[in-house]
């Protein structure tokens, strides 16, 4: 297996869970996402982007780090370019660190969509800002390792058919969830969280770090 962490430009806090997720992964930084490397104590193998959002003072902080430079006028974001390069280098799983928050809401929404597209190809993907994380939920059965009390929501990217949730405060049994419904917002783990979906696509957003739900 070849697991990659992509350092994106959104928010990121260091937690023990995040440390475990990025441990032993290969790392590619996307433009301003380089600022997370020192905090996490990890060394990227490549720095990708048009370098228009690198924090002041970091432009020359990694003189020996290989760079792959792209023009500012391009048809992909720096994050998507970094993901593409990871796939070219044989990635079999991705941690998108810094996927949420930041100054560009459109980029954060794109990260969710890209993760969903990759998951549909069979690629394991987790999106994280350290305190909260997202995992694509597609037709079939899924199980998650969250502890009791962890708050989570299921955000439908379409209408959902036959959604079952067990090991939770408010179980669901093969329910139909219209697109845009808030039915699946703010549940909590009680036991071992299992999900099953007959059709549709969704993102499970969890808050495994204490206090991240506020």
How is this fold's topology laid out?
Elements: E1 3-7, H1 16-22, E2 26-30, H2 35-40, E3 46-49, E4 67-69, H3 78-88, E5 93-97, H4 105-120, E6 125-128, E7 133-137, E8 140-143, E9 151-156, E10 160-168, E11 172-177, E12 187-197, E13 202-207
Parallel strand pairs: 1-2, 1-5, 2-3, 3-4, 5-6
Antiparallel strand pairs: 6-7, 7-13, 8-12, 9-12, 9-13, 10-11, 10-12
Q: What does it look like?
A:
By secondary structure, the protein is of the alpha/beta class. It has two domains: 3-130, Thiamin pyrophosphokinase, catalytic domain (Rossmann fold), CATH 3.40.50.10240; 136-207, Thiamin pyrophosphokinase, thiamin-binding domain (Jelly Rolls, Sandwich). Helices cover 19% and strands 34% of the residues. It is built from four helices and 13 strands. Strands 1, 2, 3, 4, 5, 6, 7, 8, 9, 10, 11, 12 and 13 form a 13-stranded mixed sheet that branches. β1, α1 and β2 form a beta-alpha-beta unit. The longest helix has 16 residues, at 105-120. The radius of gyration is 18 Å and the shape is elongated. The chain starts with a strand and ends in a 7-residue tail after the last strand. InterPro entries: Thi_PPkinase, Thiamin_PyroPKinase_B1-bd, TPK, TPK_B1-bd_sf, TPK_catalytic, TPK_catalytic_sf. GO terms for molecular function: ATP binding; kinase activity; thiamine binding; thiamine diphosphokinase activity. Its EC number is 2.7.6.2.
Keywords:
214 residues, alpha/beta, Rossmann fold, Jelly Rolls, 13-stranded mixed β-sheet, kinase, transferase, thiamine binding, Thiamine diphosphokinase, ATP-binding
């Amino acid at each position: 297996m070849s697991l990659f962490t992509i350092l994106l430009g959104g928010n990121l806090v260091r937690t023990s869970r995040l440390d475990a997720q990025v441990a032993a992964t290969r790392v590619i930084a996307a433009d301003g996402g380089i600022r997370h490397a020192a905090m996490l104590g990890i060394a990227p193998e490549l720095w990708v982007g048009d370098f228009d959002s690198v924090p002041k003072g970091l432009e020359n902080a990694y003189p020996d780090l290989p760079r792959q430079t792209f023009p500012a006028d391009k048809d992909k974001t720096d994050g998507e370019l970094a993901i593409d390069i990871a796939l070219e280098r044989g990635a079999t799983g991705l941690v998108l660190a810094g996927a949420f928050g930041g100054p560009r809401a459109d980029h954060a929404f794109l990260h969710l969509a890209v993760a969903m597209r990759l998951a549909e190809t069979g690629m394991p993907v987790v999106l994280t800002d350290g305190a909260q994380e997202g995992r694509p939920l597609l037709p079939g059965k899924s199980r998650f390792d969250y502890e009791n009390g962890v708050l989570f929501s299921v955000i439908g990217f379409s209408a959902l058919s036959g959604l079952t949730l067990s090991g939770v405060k408010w179980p669901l049994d093969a329910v139909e969830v219209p697109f845009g419904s808030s039915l699946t917002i703010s549940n909590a783990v009680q036991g071992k969280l299992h999900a099953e979906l007959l059709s549709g696509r969704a993102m499970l957003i969890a808050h495994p770090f204490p206090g991240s739900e506020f």
